[in-house]
Amino acid sequence: MSLPKPVMRGLLGRRLRFHLPIAFALSIVAAAAFKYTVTEPRKQAYADFYKQYDAVKEFNAMREAGIFESVRPSGE
Amino acid sequence: MCQMLGLTAGRFGTRFLGRRVMALVTPSSATMASHGHGHADVSEIADMSKPMYCDRMDTPLPDRAYKDELNAADKTLKEKEKGPWNQLTKEEKIALYRLMFRKTYPEMKQKTDEWKTVMGGIFIFLGLTGLLVWWQSIYVYPAQPRTFDSEWQAKQIQRMLDMRVNPVEGLASKWDYEKGQWK
Q1: CA distances from residue A37 to A8, A30, A31, B34, B169 in whole angstroms, order as listed
Q2: How far is CA A25 from CA A37, B146, B150, in A?
Q3: Is there a contact between A45 and B169 if contact means CB atoms under 8 Å apart?
Q4: Which of A46, A65, B7, B134 could bridge B162 with an S-S bond, Cβ 3.0-4.6 Å?
Q5: Chain B interface test: which of A49, A54, A59, A69 (most B C-beta within 10 Å)
Q6: Which among A1, A48, A64, A67 is the top mutation candidate for probing chain B, defined by the most B β-carbons within 10 Å of its own β-carbon?
Q7: Residues B54-68: pLDDT tens digits?
Q8: B146 vs A35, B32, B75, B141, B160, CA distance in Å?
Q9: Is residue A71 domain-resident?
Q10: Percent of chain B with pLDDT over 70
Q11: What gap in Å lies between CA B83 and CA B1, rounded to an integer?
Q12: Residues with Cβ < 8 Å from A51, sequence gap 6 or more?
């Protein structure tokens, strides 16, 4: 019935020394993962879209579809 | 504290709850609530103004001992307890424990089949609710708005494509305008 005295002090410090590096590492990994799976592809998608974008052609296509109220399709 | 938290957990609680439920269900509830002798299911009514016993893992020392009405043999044992404990035999020590507590920790930790009752009750009520919702969808709901019709929805998507909604990553980017079909 003589057990060793348990550790009474420094428990929070020990927990932080263990968990904080893991928390920082995982956060950085999460941020990096999001950057390279979401933001970089999205930036590339926008760059590719506007490389070949002809605004006037798109406008005329939309006008012919009849969605504008200020300019009707060229036939009417 | 024991009696407040242990009301629903301990066995005293369910018996007390049973009496309250009985009082609500029976028609002459006013007369039956005033005296407890008419019920077959409740043999004693716990006086909740006094300290109560409970078997809880987080309360190792309840507010009172389990047995407070001691017969003569128990009383002599309690007197012997006042002396040196190494003079108590193993059976006496166990008897003293059983006077103080109803269940040991391993007995408290024994797993029950209560989860089956709980899950069964959950599914029964989910099923009844489902039937109710089904009946309601037929007899209560008003007519659907015309915007739910498939022709309206098709025209709606066509208009969104004409407007080039989300042309970079969204809807219009998935439509092939040259071929007139989805990519």
Answers
A1: 46, 10, 10, 71, 14
A2: 18, 53, 50
A3: yes
A4: A65
A5: A49
A6: A67
A7: 999 999 999 999 998
A8: 43, 58, 84, 15, 18
A9: no
A10: 77
A11: 32
A12: none
Q: What angle do CA B76, B104, B70 make, to 5 degrees?
A: 25
Residue located via tokens 């103080």: B100
* Confidence band for B9, pLDDT divided at 50, 70 and 90: very low
User: How far apart (Å, rounded) are the C-alpha atoms in residues B15 and B9?
Assistant: 11
A19 lies in a domain? yes
SS3 B176: strand
- What are B88-110's pLDDT values in tens digits? 999 999 999 999 999 999 999 99
Q: Amino acid identity of B54?
A: C
Calculate how close chain B gets to A7, using CA atoms only, in Å.
22
CA distance B83 to chain A (A): 22
Range of the domain at A36: 11-65
For B19-43, the pLDDT digits (tens) are: 444 444 444 444 444 454 555 566 7
In a domain, A52, yes or no: yes
Count how many domains chain A has: 1
Helix (H) or strand (E) holding B181: strand B181-182
Q: Is residue A15 part of a domain?
A: yes
Distance from CA of B163 to the nearest CA of A (A): 6
Identity of the amino acid at B151: E
